[in-house]
Amino acid sequence: MTDVQPLRRSLPRIPDRFAAFGAVLLAVVVLAALLAPWLAPYPLDEPRPLERLLPPSGAHWFGTDQVGRDVLTRILYGGRTSLTIAVAVLGVSAAVGVTLGVVAGYAGGWVRDVIMRVTDVFLAFPALLLSLALAVVLQPSVNTVILAIAVTWWPWYTRLAASVAASIATRPYVDAARCLGVPAPLIIVRHVLPNSLTPVLVQLSLDAGGVILTSAALSYLGLGAQEPTAEWGLMVQQGQTLFTTNWWVVTFPGLAILVTAFAFNVLGEGLRNALDPRRAVK
Amino acid sequence: MLAYLARRLGQALLVVAGVVVLTFAVMRLVPGDPAVAFAGPKATPEQLAEARARFGLDDPLPVQLLTYARDLVTGDWGTSLRTRQPVRDDLYLAFPASLELVGAALLVAIALGVPLGVLAARHKMRLPDFGVRLGSMLAVSVPVFWLALALQTVFASNLGWFPIAGEYDTSLDTTSPLTLWTNITVVDALITGNWPIFTSTLEHLVLPALVVAAYPTGVIAQMTRAALIEESGQDHARLERALGFGETSILTRFALRPALSPVLSLIALVFAYAIVNGFLVEAVFNWPGLGRYAAESIRSLDTPAIAGVTLLVALVYVLANLVVDVLQGFVDPRTRSR
Amino acid sequence: MMISVRDLQVRYAGRLVADVPELDVGAGECVAIVGESGSGKSTTLLSLLGLTENAEISGRVRVCGVDVLTASPKALREIRGARAALVMQSPQAALSPATRLGTLMRRALKLHGRQGNDVDAALEAVVLDREILRRYPHEVSGGQAQRFAIALAIALGAEVILADEPTSALDVTVQAEVVGVLRRLRAERDLALLLVSHDLALVSTIADRVLVMKDGAVVESGPAAEVLAEPAHPYTRELLEALP
Amino acid sequence: MTMLRAERVTLGYGRRPVVHEVSLDITEGGVGLIGESGSGKTTLARAFLGLLSPMSGDIWYGDRPLRKADLRAFRRDVQPVFQAEALDPRMRVGRSVAEALPRAARSRVGELLEQVGLDPALADRRPHQLSGGQRQRVVIARALAVGPRLLILDEPTSALDVTVQARILDLLAALDTERLLITHNLAVVERLCRTSHVLFAGRVVESGPTAELLASPAHPYTRALRDAVPKLGGPPPQARGRTEAVPAATGCPFRLRCPLAVPQCEQAPALRDVDGRRVACHRAEDVLSS
């Protein structure tokens, strides 16, 4: 080997297993949430005041909370809430954002300027504050959280889709389709959208972690899910004063958020490398 | 370049106008009679009528919007229902503290993120790269409010290495009072050489700044690494190798500067994100910043205050983007000729 | 002998991409490697400076008296640029976008301890004026960028120039200019020039000897006049007949 | 009256014109548009395809300006063959060809592929699974699907290896459609086009029968182009003038690079007839005689 520096030769090459690792971790999280009713050792809402604040034990792997509910059970069900929020928020945001973005990117001219300026306004508007305001107006609930985050999240997809669509619009194969008389909407659906999917897909998986963190933050501020719904952010908020005395009530929901967000981020990073055309390490 | 900046400034003003309209609209969404929102829930009918007149609440909406915009420009951001002070003054007190926290966090993020990114790119697909990617992945995945609680409990409450909350030891106000210049405590203390308050603020700043810095550090490290690998895969890296330059000097002397361009635009983004994240951390560490002010305003439905905070944060975001556009010109000459 | 190659074999993940039994280039001599895409001509050239990342290279490769395959990275870095210089296909892309050309020149000279070398003479040799040193790569034309790459080699005192399709990305009038500079410098400074190209006509106007490569193997080699006048191998004939 | 022609057409992106007052007929026997990068030849091609509307002047389709013409008819008569990336990377090539056919005639895809020398079974492959030459043949098949009378070819073979290029040129020569060929390669023009126009900095500098134009150029730029092309075993190509000189904004655009430039060249030379050729150069006669 000629151009390898002595330093590099000593460090072993670690194969890029990120995507696989992320996918496995995510599968575990999703399965745990889906199979919550079967996996959960205890029924969801059955406060047992006698068993208040028990530390982790054989009976309660993650201990119990202030009203004696099994923390593990609530985390499993909480997974459902978080994943539903993530899927719903990203579904709405991507649908609205990509549609507007692709039209803006392909049409160009004043159409693009108008759409992009409106997008910039929503981007400049502090996401948390808009969410707070909406949550205040619509009474806190999981649906409010979904709407509140989606309203501030779609602009990212508009901006991404617009830049991707703008570059595709200049490709010769789009010109060729125009020369065949294919109408613009059909060109968008048939050529521009399919070729814009890869970057959007990568962004979706990278954003999932962010959505879960934001929804947990909203619940933490008391604007998301309300008692008695099992939601990780709410669980941390309710247990925050117990960090020193009964650490498990706060730590396990926090870890659940971390692991789920981590799984999505790792998968997203892996997808970005796998789908990036220039990924081949020369 | 000037034409480009002029156009960007024009766009920025448009965006600010848009934010004003959006804020106005959202504030009108708040249920109940706007007069109550301005005069307070326990206001007497006369006070309500007076508030209605003063704020022109009977005028058609567009007129109200214009008066609202005019007031904003002239500095009248309304009076907070909770503090009974002009919102502008409340913001004048709270904003510097947030700036102090976010500023410190960003300094940490850049000081840690960029070198880690370079290290990872230099040893691509090897242990350091794997470590940095894993670490940054964790940093962007950790819930901020939970991390705040954890650090506070471990390092403040239990180990006592750092103060639990607050911006500085208020007992110092009597022993060595601080003269205010920029209203940013640590900066004023530095300028006026008030060492007791300076060190005390630094001590209070460590934990919250680290928490706010977690996400930016991770994302800056990831972006720097990706941009460097992209740049060092270009043809020019091969010519530099053919000129006899070693890998490290190719990365630092040729690839780093163009690679900083995407990192810079990321920093503007992360700055705005940090302000929002700061809200949560301020609540945990009782930091007298915008976050705490906004949280309390929301709890008490203090509409003018909420609007004030929103506009201020939006203005900061737009300004940050403009500053980055100017810096782009220096980092990557290609943008200068755009 | 500036370049001497025996039984060079280059493999990417076990797949043989270039197999050159013999290649010699003397001072003042121009040898061309001709072939279509995927023939392994560029890989062959790059392996002479050890610039083929992640490739397994075997055989004996001596450039400017240094055995490239066994040389220490430090020894290899010493001949790169200073004794054997590379000229690449896409001129602008080969120059770091955020570095002024003068800065790149200065850094390269300093790296090899040759700050004293006459930069102006090198620029004059490629018909460029000093003013170009203040410019960034995107502020110069393709032809200027390519001639600057040659000026770098001259300033560093390189005796060998490895040109990998130096003009295929340039307009034909600009190509004539760049090739003219290469031809003149080879004569004036007794440089060894290894030219990789897919353009037989261009090669016939400058090369002393030529190697024809197809799918990684050398199918024919010899004096340019003979090979191009009476090609022995059918593939060489096919290449000649294909010229429009 | 030719099917397609440009009349004093000025083209540009945004406000900056790139092509200035060009008039050009697509006559019989193939028309060559010769120029280097930045000459505006691709912009002109896009205008002829109706993809770019002129800032001034008009593209005429038969007896009507293109902007008022029956676009459906135009789309059947005129089709492009682009250089690279002319096929949607995600779409099977058969489907790309079918896009040009009405739903009922989708069965003709196999026949069209055969017509350009491809095995119909390739229809299910995606572009990256084909060689450069095969991809270009699919592009030609798609263009032929509508039965065009004129093909506008923008550098159809410059991305291909020389042996593959030869076979594609044979295919194009065998087609009985008219063609407008945009290229920098003089040899390809000589083979496929009876008349040619040389473009420099967005202006036609010389037009005429291709063979004569290359044998005895009347414009210094045409001669510089011809002399720069290396010929097998021929003399080393001569470089004339400093190629990086930016085209002059006033007067003759070539004057800053022209070895024959004289003060008179500061007035823009109009296109005029010289020895059966149209040329924009005050010293055309000197160029012809030397």
TrEMBL record, chain A:
Protein topology in the membrane: Multi-pass membrane protein
Keyword Transmembrane helix on entry: yes
BP GO terms, sorted: transmembrane transport
Main location: membrane
Localization, UniProt: Cell membrane
Pfam families xref list: BPD_transp_1, OppC_N
Name of this protein: D-ala-D-ala transporter subunit
Organism field: [Actinomadura] parvosata subsp. kistnae
Lineage: Bacteria, Bacillati, Actinomycetota, Actinomycetes, Streptosporangiales
Automatic annotation (TrEMBL), chain B:
Keywords from the UniProt entry: Cell membrane, Membrane, Transmembrane, Transmembrane helix, Transport
Pfam families: BPD_transp_1, BPD_transp_1_N
A cellular component term, taken from the record's GO annotations: plasma membrane
Membrane topology listed for this record: Multi-pass membrane protein
Domain ABC transmembrane type-1: 95-328
CDD domains on file: TM_PBP2 (cd06261)
Location relative to the cell: Cell membrane
Record-linked Gene3D superfamilies: MetI-like
Gene Ontology terms, MF aspect: dipeptide transmembrane transporter activity
Transmembrane segments: 12-30, 101-122, 134-155, 205-228, 263-285, 305-331
Family, as annotated: Belongs to the binding-protein-dependent transport system permease family.
Protein name, as recorded: Peptide ABC transporter permease
Organism (species): [Actinomadura] parvosata subsp. kistnae
TrEMBL record, chain D:
Domain ABC transporter: 4-226
Pfam families membership: ABC_tran, oligo_HPY
Matches recorded under InterPro entries: AAA+_ATPase, ABC_transp_ATP-bind, ABC_transporter-like_ATP-bd, ABC_transporter-like_CS, Oligopep_ABC_C, P-loop_NTPase
UniProt-recorded Gene Ontology molecular function terms: ATP binding; ATP hydrolysis activity
Domain of life according to the entry: Bacteria
Keywords: ATP-binding, Nucleotide-binding, Transport
Keyword Glycoprotein tagged: no
Gene3D superfamilies (alphabetical): P-loop containing nucleotide triphosphate hydrolases
GO biological process, one term: peptide transport
Keyword Nucleotide-binding among record annotations: yes
Family, similarity comment: Belongs to the ABC transporter superfamily.
Protein name according to UniProt: Dipeptide/oligopeptide/nickel ABC transporter ATP-binding protein
Organism expressing this protein natively: [Actinomadura] parvosata subsp. kistnae
